[in-house]
Write a structure and sequence with these properties.
Elements (H helix, E strand, L loop, with lengths): L2 E2 L5 H6 L20 H5 L2 E4 L5 H9 L20 H14 L2 E5 L8 H11 L4 E4 L12 E4 L2 H20 L6
Parallel strand pairs: 1-5, 2-3, 3-4, 4-5
Helix pairs in contact: 4-5
């Protein structure tokens, strides 16, 4: 298992335009989930629902967060749990990468299902806070020391994947 560490903080990520990548914009309230092509250009975030505002802030800063659950993460905001779970699994499986985050003492439940969906589709997972989970040994899981590291690793993966899809540059 590889561990990565940088000196950036979460708020450095949000404030720094050179660390952001063009990706899906924040959806309008009530908008449909991102189209599959847009999903592959972004990363899905899996965590406890209480972190939803953090992910919305990251998305608003220009990061390609494709998780729609973050727009209904407050207690009582979800009116159709079947629809929510269908979207969560589809988005986790279709995203270009998955960032999973757990703080000390948090027990992931849905986040583990979302990780499984991503791994089943061969998507890389960049994880913080899953030291007690055996899934951390999966070859597509990279452990990051901090959330910021996990986001930077996901962004780097998305950039490299996009370059591969576009083929070699013809610029001289």
């Amino acid at each position: 298992m590889t561990t990565h560490r940088t000196l950036f903080s979460f708020y450095d990520l949000v404030a720094s335009p050179h660390l952001r990548a063009a990706g899906p914009a924040a959806p309008d309230e009530g908008a449909a989930p991102a189209a599959p092509a847009a999903l592959a250009d972004g990363f899905y975030v899996a965590s406890k629902a209480k972190h939803g505002p953090r992910w919305r802030e990251l998305r608003a800063a220009g990061f390609p967060v494709v998780s729609t659950w973050i727009d209904e993460s407050e207690v009582g905001a979800t009116s159709d749990w079947g629809d929510l779970w269908t979207r969560c699994i589809a988005e986790a499986a279709g995203a270009g990468a998955l960032v999973v985050y757990a703080e000390p003492g948090e027990v992931l439940k849905g986040g583990l299902a979302e990780m499984g969906a991503a791994l089943a589709m061969g998507r890389p997972v960049f994880a913080t806070g899953i030291e007690d989970q055996s899934v951390r040994h999966h070859p597509l899981v990279t452990r990051a020391e901090t959330l910021e590291d996990a986001v930077l690793l996901a962004m780097d993966h998305l950039r490299r994947a996009k370059e591969q899809r576009q083929g070699p540059s013809t610029d001289c």
